[in-house]
Specification:
The complex is a heterodimer.
Chain A (H helix, E strand, L loop, with lengths): L1 H28 L4 H9 L4 H11 L5 H13 L5 E2 L4 E2 H36 L4 H15 L2 H15 L17 H39 L2 H9 L3 H27 L5 H6 L5 H10 L3 H29 L8
Antiparallel strand pairs in A: 1-2
Helix pairs in contact in A: 1-13, 2-3, 5-6, 5-8, 5-10, 5-13, 6-8, 7-8, 8-10, 9-10, 10-13, 12-13
Chain B lengths: L1 H20 L7 E6 L14 H7 L7 E3 L5 E3 L2 E6 L5 E6 L13 H14 L1 H6 L3 E8 L2 E6 L20 H4 L19 E7 L3 E6 L13 E6 L3 H9 L5 E2 L9 H5 L4 E4 L9 E6 L9 H10 L2 H8 L5 E2 L22 H11 L5 E5 L5 H16 L3 E4 L4 H9 L5 E6 L5 H5 L23 H12 L3 H18 L2 E6 L4 E4 L2 E2 L16 E2 L2
Parallel strand pairs in B: 1-10, 15-16, 15-17
Antiparallel strand pairs in B: 2-3, 4-5, 5-7, 6-7, 8-9, 9-10, 11-19, 12-19, 13-17, 13-18, 14-18, 20-21
Classes of the chains: A mainly alpha, B alpha+beta.
GO cellular component, one term (chain B): ATP-binding cassette (ABC) transporter complex
Organism (chain B): Rhodopseudomonas palustris (strain HaA2)
Keywords (chain B): Signal
Amino acid sequence: MLAFIAQRIGKAVVVLLAIVVLNFFLIRLAPGDPALVMAGEAGAGDQLFISQLREKFGLDKPMPVQLFLYVKGILSFDLGYSFRQQMPVSKLILDRLPATMLLTGTAFAISLAFGIMFGALAARRAGTWADTAITVLALIFYATPLFWIALMAILLFSVTMEWLPSFGYKTVGANYTGLAHVLDVGAHLILPATTIGLFFMATYARMTRASMLEVKRLDFVKTARAKGLRDAVIQRRHVLRNALLPVVTLAGLQAGTLVGGAVLTETVFAWPGIGRLMYEALLQRDYNLLLGVFVVCSAMVLVFNLITDLIYRSVDPRIEYAA
Amino acid sequence: MLKRTLIGLALVCGLNAVAVAEEPKVGGVVNAVIQPEPPGLMLGLVQNGPTQMISGNIYDGLLRYGPKLEPQPGLAESWTVSEDGKVYTFKLRSGVTWHDGKPFTSADVLFSIEFLKQTHARARGNLATLDKVEAPDASTVVFTLKEPFGPFLGIFEVGSMPMIPKHIYEGTDFKANPANNTPIGTGPYMFKEWQKGSFIRLVKNPNYYIKGKPHIDEIYWHVIPDAAARSVAFETGKIDVLPGGSVENFDVPRLSKLKNVCVTGAGWEFFSPHSWLWLNNRSGPTANTKFRQALMFAIDRNFARDVIWNGLGKVATGPSGSAIKYYTSAVPKYDLAPAKAKALLKEAGYKGEKVRMLPLPYGETWQRWAEAVKQNLQDVGINVEMIATDVPGWNQKVSDWDYDIAFTYLYQYGDPALGVGRNYVSSQIAKGSPFNNVEGYSNPEVDKLFAEGAVAFPDTKRDEIYAKAQKILVEDVPVAWLLELQFPTITRCNVKNLVTTAIGVNDGFRDAWLDK
C-alpha cells in the first residue's frame, strides 16, 4: 500500500506542474493586467505610474522568464508575493484556508450524513409518501441556484426572525473566548453551511436511493434473505455497503472542489474564505495569488482523489491497489 | 387653533435649538462598510477609493475643504499668498505628533513632497508648477511656484497630499517598507488590526492635536463583498454607516425609509463625480461632430436620473460639474429631442453602422443604465452592440481605445485645472491609461484656454477663460455628458456630525460622535 501511495504522489507532482504551466498561460490570456486594475481603482494614473506598477509586478520581463521564475519558486515551496495585497501568497492562503475548510467541511459532513440517511430511508420506503417527499425535496434543492437559497435564508432567518447573523464568521469586536467563541462561530456557520450542504445533500440522497434500489434486486441480497437474516442487517451490511461505492466516488470528486467551490456562498455571507480570495484575485488580475490558490486547490483535489481510492478499498476489499 | 399651532411651532423650534446646542458625547464603537477591500492603507503609496476612505482617518493633510471648497486649517493653521501668486507660506500647528510619538515638523512636509512625487500620480501632476519648497524653521513651509497656479490652494486635501513620516521612510525602499502594513500618520485614528477578508479596526488617537477629539473610541470597517448582503447588514443593525456607493442605488429608497436612518448627499463636492460617455473621436460614426450631437439629443438623461438613480444627482450641462469652481450654465442646451437627433444623424450621413458600447462593470445600476441608453439610441435608429467585460477588461479596452461608446465617471477635484482639463487637452492623449483624454479630442483653442486657465492670475481672469472653454466643448461634444452623480451616505441617525467637509467620509471620523 505504501508503494501505491508513493507512486501516486510522484504522479501527482507531475500533474501539478502541468497544471501550473497551463494556468500560468490561461490567466494571462484574460484582457487587462494588475497594473491597469490598480491604476483604475486609484482613479488616476499617468504612464509613469502604470509602468512603475508593471515593473513592480515583474510584468516587464518576457513571459518565459516570468514562467521560469514562478516555477522555480513553486519547486522551493514559494508561492510568490501578492503585490496587490502586499503579502506573501502563502500567508494569504494559509490565513483564509481554515475558514473555508470549516465551512465546506461542515457542509460536506452534514450533507453526506443526511444525504445517505435520507437516501437509504427513501429506498427502504420506496413508493410511499416518505419516498416521494424526500425525492421531491431533493429535486428542489438540486435545481435551485445556491445564491437564491442563500438570500432567502438571510431574508428569513436574519432579517425577519433575527435569529442568525447574516455575514462574517464571528461577532467582530465581541472578543469571545472558549465556548462562547465556538457558539458564536457556530451561529455564523449555520446559514452558509446549510446553503452549500443542501445541494450536496440532495445529490447524495438521490444517488444513495437509486443505488440501493439497484443492489436490492441482486442475487446475493436474495440469498441473504433466504438465509433468514434480519431485514435491518441485510439493508445495512449487504445493500447499503454495496450501494455506497458510487456515492463515495461522487463524494470524492466533490471533496476536491470543496476548497474552491464555495465562491458564491462565501461572497454572499462575507465568509473570509479562499473561494472569495480566488474570485477577487481573478477580478484584480492578481496573477501570483490566483495561481497560488489554483495550485493549492489542485493539490487538494489530488490528495482527495488518493484518499477516495483508499476508502474504496476499505468499503469493498475486492478492489485492489493499482497506481 | 392658531394659538395651539404657535405653541407647537415653539416646541419644535425649542427642540431644534436644543439639538443644535447638543454637546458631543464621548465613546462608542462605529461599524462601517468598506467596499471593496483596499489593497493597502499606506495612503502615499495606494490611492484607490477604499484606501482613501479608511486612511483619511489615519493621515492628515495640510488643509481641509468646506462644502464650498473653501480652504480650512488642517495640519497648517494659517497660510499666506504673495501678491504675484507665486509664493505660498504655510504656518504649521505646533504640538502635533505622529502615532509613534515623534513630533511632526516642516521636515516631514518637505519629505512628503519628495515621497509623493515618486509614488502618487495625481500629486505629481498637481506639483508640476512647483519650483522649490523650503522650511525656514520647524513650523514654516514656503512653496515657490515657477508661475502662478490657480488651483494650488486646492491640492492639500488628505487624499491628494497626505503627510508621510520622514523618520520611518527616509532612506528606505518605500514600496517594500514593512511599516506599510502598520501605517503611521498624525490623524485622529490609529491603525490597530486588519483581518483580511473580514474587517479593519481603527482606534482613537489619544494624543490627537485637537484636544477632546476624536469622540468615538473605535471604528470597524467591515468587508462585505455582496451588495445585497451589505444592505441586509445595515437593515439588521449590524452596520451603522454605509458610505456613498456601498449599496446598489435601487436599495437606497428602501433603506432611507427605515426608522432612525439618515441620508445625506453632501460630502462629494470636492470630487464631484461626473459621468459621461467616452465617444471615440478618431474613427467610426462617433468621429463625426453631428453624430455626437445627435447622441446628446437622443439620450433621456432625466429618465436616467429619476428611474435608474432614484432621483439622485443632476443632469450634467457640460464638462464641469455645478459644484466646482468656474462652472457656467451659459452653454448650448441639449434637451431630449429624438426628432432633432434623427435629423442630425441624417446630416452626418449615418447608414446604420454598428456602434460598440461598453457599459461600466460596476454593478447593477450601471448595467441598467447602459440598457436604457441603448434603448434611447436604438429609438433614433442607431445600431448599438453591447460589449460585456469585467473591470480589468474594461480598463484594457478603454486604454487601448478599442470601443465606440464607453460609460465612465471621473472625479473633478474641485477645479477645472485639476480634474476637468485632463479629459479634453491634446497633451493628455496617450494610449495605455483610462484617465486621460481617452476620446482623442484635439482642439488647439481648447488646449490654449486650459493652459492659460491654469496659470491665470487673479481668479477673475480664470472665470472668463473657463467659461469660454466650456462653451466650445459643449458645442463640439467630445464626450456625451450624462449626470453629476450623487452617492448618498446612509447612517443611523445617532451617528452625528460625520460629513462636515467637501470630501465627506474620506475626511475621517474626526468630528463625528455617537448619541447613545
